[in-house]
Amino acid sequence: MRVFIDLLWFFKRNRSRYLGGIMLLIAVSLLSLIPPKIVGIVVNQLANHSLTRDHLLWALAAIFGTAVITYGIRYWWRILLYGGSIQLATDLRTQLYHHFTLMSPQFYHQKRIGDLMAHCTNDVQAIQETAGDGVLTLVDSITTGTVVIATMALAISWKLTVISLLPLPVMALAVSHYGKLLHKRFALAQRAFSDINDRVQEYISGIRVVRSFGQEAWERKNFVELSRDVVAKNVAVARIDSLFDPTISVIIGFSYFLSIAVGALFVVHGTLNIGQLTTFTLYQGQLIWPMLAFGFLFNIVERGSASYDRVQSLLTIAPNVKDRPDAIDVTPNGDISYRIEEFHYPETALPTLHQIHFTIHQGQTLGIVGRTGTGKTTLMRLLLREFDIENGDIEIGGVSIYHLTLKALRQAIAYAPQDDFLFSATIAENIAFARADASEADIERFARVAQMHDDILRFPQGYHTMVGERGVTLSGGQKQRISIARALLQDAAILLLDDTLSAVDARTESEILDELKKNRAGRTTVIATHRLSAVKHADLIVVLESGKIVEHGTHQELVARHGRYWDMYQRQQLENLVTQGGGPS
Amino acid sequence: MSAESASYQAIPSSRTFPRLLHYLAPYRRQVVLSLAILLAATATDVFQPILIKIFIDRYLIPRYFPENIMIWLGIGYMGLVVTTSLLNVFQLLLFQILALDIIQRLRVELFDKVQEMALSYFDRTPVGVLVSRITNDTEAILDMFMTVLSSFVQNITMLVGILIAMFALDARLAALCLVLIPVIIGVMVLYQKVSSPIFHQSRMRLALLNAKLNESLAGMPVIQSMRQEHRLRQEFGDINEAYRRIRFRNTQINGLLLRPLMDVIYLMVLMLVLGYFGVSSFSQAVNIGVLYAFVTYLSRFFEPVNNMLQRMNFFQQAMVSAERVFQILDNPSAAPKQEGTEDPRIHLGQIRFEDVSFSYDGVTDVLKHISFTANPGQTVAIVGHTGSGKSSIVNLLMRFYPIERGRILIDGADLQMFSNDELRQKIGLVLQDPFLFVGDVSSNIRLGNENIDQDKILKAAQFVQAASFIEKLPAAYHAPIGERGATLSTGQRQLISFARTMAIEPIVLVLDEATASVDTETEEAIQSALQKMRHGRTTIAIAHRLSTIQDADLILVLHHGEIVERGTHQELLSREGLYHKMYLLQQGGSSERG
Questions:
Q1: All domains of chain B, ordered by start, with CATH?
Q2: I want to staple A81 with a disulfide (CB 3.0 to 4.6 A). Which of A21, B269, B296, B453 is the partner?
Q3: What ipTM is given for this predicted complex?
Q4: How much is the pTM?
C-alpha cells in the first residue's frame, strides 16, 4: 500500500477529483442498499398479503429512481477516477520523455532502448492501473464492505451478520496464500517466456549460421523444448489460478448456507421475518465483490509499486553532462584548441585518447584520419560535450567549452554524425530538423550544396517524400547527404562531418567538398574520414592511431613523409581503381 | 517497437476467427470433456437457488421442519456447492491446459514455417517483428483461448442454465424476462460499434507514441546536438495528449455502456419481476420461494454478461494478432529444397559454375554469366570491390537462394538434387561475421551437431590454433559466451567460427574473408589457420587481401557481377590488368607498413 503514499503528490494535485470520486463511490454504495431493502419490504407484504397497488407503484418508482441516479453517479466517478489515472500515465510519460532528453550518451550506452521503452509503456500502465482500479477497489471495497456489513448488522440482525461472516476470514487466508503461490509461479512463467523470446531473437539473428550448418532440426528441438517449458510453467500457474474462483464460491456458498439456515431459525423464533432474510441474502451478494476486490487490489498494488520504483529510479538518474554553475550563455567563436592529456570512456579502463594537442584556426579545415576505433569520433564528441574530459580541456576562441552552457556551445556547432540517423518525417522536415521554421528556399539551397537536390526531385513527392519505414528507402549515400544538408542548415560557426562522405562516390564527394569551400568561407570545418580524398585540401590533417596523434601536417607534407598517411593513401588509390574496374590509370 | 507501427498492421477478416477455431479440431475429445464438465458444473450451480426455494416454500413458510429432511437439504446444498467448485476447478484447468497446448502447437508451426522461409525474407523483415510474431502475438491469441473463449463458453452456458432454471420455476415470468436477451445483445452490438473505432484509434495512437519514443531515444544524439529537445518534447507532448484524449473517450464509452448500464438494466428487470409478483398477488396467492429464486438468478445473470462485455476488447486484439500470425503462415516464400530422388553424395568436392546469372529483385543482375570450375583440392579465389557480387556467389553455392539461370554442379550433380543434410555436412562455410550463440565455447563449436564429441571439438580447436586462447579462458571450453560473443575479441570469435567449420570435417570449404581489423598476433593465427584449413580441400575463397590468396589455383576478378579477369597469380600479374594494379599498390602499402 506504500505506493499510494508515493503517489500522494498526484492525489494532492488532483485533490478535488479524487475527493469527489471517493464521495461518489460512497454515495453509490449507499444507494445500492435501497433496492434489496425494497425487495425485502415487498416480500414481507406479499407474505402477509398486505401489498396494495400504491405500495407496489411506490416500490417500483423507488427502484427506478435509484437506477437512474446510480447510473449517473457511476458514470461520473468513472470519469473522475479513471480520467485521473489516465492523466497520471500521461504526466509520467511526459516526465520520462523530458528526462530522456536531458540524458547524455553515457546513459544510452548503459541502458537498452527496449528497456527504456518498457518503462514508458508497461511500467506506466501498471502505475495507471494502481491509480485507477487500485484506488477504486481500495475505496470501493472499504466503503461497500463497511456500509453493507453495517446495514446488515444494524438494520437486520447483528447476530446473523456475525454468523454469516464467519467463513470470510478463511477466504482472505486462501486468497492471500494463493496469491503468494501465484506470484512465484507467475515469475517463473515470465522467465520461461523471456527465455523463448531471447532464443528466437538469437535464432533469427544467426539464421545464416543456422542454415549453413544445417542446424535446423536441432534448433527446432530446442525451440520445442523451450515452448514446452513455457507450457509447463504456465500450467503450474493455471493449477493455482483455477483454484481461485471455485474456492471463493465454496466459501461464499457456505456463508449463504449459514445465513439461510440460521436465518430460518430466527424466522421461526420470530426475531426475523422472511423479507428481512431475503434482503439479508441480497446484501450478502453485494459483499462478494469487495472481498474479491481485495485480492485483486493486492496484485495491482504489488505490480504498481514495483513499476513505480523502477520509473522513479530512472527519473532520479542525474545527467552526466550539464551546465556548470559558472557557465556563460554566449555562443563561442574562434580557434579551437585541443589539450587532452588523457580521456577514457566511463565504462572502459583503457584510455581512448592520449596526449592530443593541436589548434585549428578559425575558418580553416581540419582533417582527422585513422582506422576504425582510433578515436576520430571521440574527438568530435568531446567537442560537443557528449562526454566530459577529466584530464584536459578544449577551448573555442580562448574560452573553455566547460565555461559555456550546453545550449550556447551546441549553438556554435553543426554535427553530421557517423550513423546518419534520419527521422520518420519528410525529407524537407529532416533537413530542417535544427530549424523547423526554415524556408523551402533554404532547405533547397543546402540540399544543393550537399548534392542531394537532384536525387530528391526524383522521389515521388520530392521534398515532401517520407523517409523510413513508411516512405522511400534511401541508400547510404543519400542518407549521408541529407544528414550533411541538415547540418549545413544550422549555419553554425563550426561544422563537424564524421565520416559522412564514406558512402558517397568520389565525384559527388569532390563536388560536395567544392561547394562546402564556397559556402563556409571564414568558418571552421572538421572532417573525420577513412577516405583521404575528403581531406586532401584540409589546412591541417591529424593522423590518429590507437588514440594518439602519430602524424600531422598538410596532405603534401604527409605524403612526402612516406609514413602512415602515405601508406593509407596508397591503399586507397587501389580501392578506387578496383571500384572503377581498373580502367587506364 | 517502432516496427509495430503502421506498416506491419494487419486487419482481421471474417475468416480469421473460424481459422483460429480450427486449431481446436485435434483436441475434439478434450473440448467435449471440458464442455461436459462445464455443463455439469453449471447444472449443479444453477440448482442451488432451487433448493433454497424448496426450503422456503415447503418448510420455512409453513414452519414445518422435519429434522431428517432438513439435514438432507443442508447436505444437499453444501454438496452442490462443493461439487460445483470441484467441477469448476477441473473445467478451468482443462481449458487452460488446452489453450496452452494449442498455442504451443501454433508456435511450433510458426517456427517450422520460419525455418522454411527463404533467406530473402529475413533480409526484408526486421528481427524484432518476427520475434514478436512468434512470441507476443501468439501470447495474445493464448489470452483469447484462455480467457475470452473459455469465459465466453462458460458465461453463455451459465446464462442458458439460468434461463432454463427460470423457465422451470415460472414459465410466464421467464418468458417475460426473455426481453433481456435482445436488450443485452443490443447493448453489446452498440458497444462493439461505438468502441471498436475508438479501440483501433487508441491502438494506432499508442503505436505512434511508441514509434515517436523509440525514434527519439535512438536519435537522441542528433536531437541534443541540434538543440531540438524543446521542440521534440512539444511533439511528444502532443502525441501523448492525443493518446490521453482517446483513452478518456474509451473510459467515457465504457462508463456509459458497460457496468453502469448493465446495473440499470438489472434494476429494470428487478422491477419487472417485483411488478409481476405484485400484480399477480392481487388476484391469487404468490409463491415467495419462486420470487427469491428469481431475484437470486437475476443478480447472478449479470455477472457473466459484464464479464463478456469487458473482454470484447481482448477479443479484437487477439484477432489482429491472429491475422498477423496467419500472414506469416501464408507467406509463399520458401527456401530452396532438394529436388528429385537421386540423393547424390559429395565425395571429391568438384565445384562447377555454368553460366550462372542471378538477381535478388528480378530487375538488376548482381551476377552475370559466371562460369568456373574448382577441381578437388583446388583453391579458387574471388576478388573484387564491395558490391561486385562476391557474396552472391557464396549465397548461391550454399543454396540460400534459388538458382534460376545457369547451373551449379558438385561432383557432376546439380546442386538442387542434394539433400540439405549432405550439403551442410560436406560444405563448410566461414562467414564474414562470426556469429556466436549464447552458450559456451564447446556449444558454439558443436552447434547442436550430436556427432561432434568433446574430442572432436578439441581437435578442431587445436587445428585452427584456437586452443591456446581457449585454454586461457577461465573455464576453457566451458567458458560462457554472452549475447553475440561480446566477451571475446573479433579475432577470437573468428577462430571459434573456424573451429566450428572444421569440426564438421567438410570436403568443400567456402570462406568469406573477414574485413574487420584484428590485432597482429591474432591476424597471424588466423592466416596460418586458413592455410591449414584449405589444405586438401576444395576451397572457394572470397578475399579482401590479395596476399592471402597468392597460391590459389585460380583467381577470379569480379567487377559489377562479371568475371573480368581470371588466372593464377602469376598469369594475372603478367597480364598487367586490374589485378596487377591491385597487387602493386597493396605490395607497396604492406612493405611500407613492415
A1: 12-170+287-329 (1.20.1560.10), 351-432+505-593 (3.40.50.300)
A2: A21
A3: 0.85
A4: 0.78
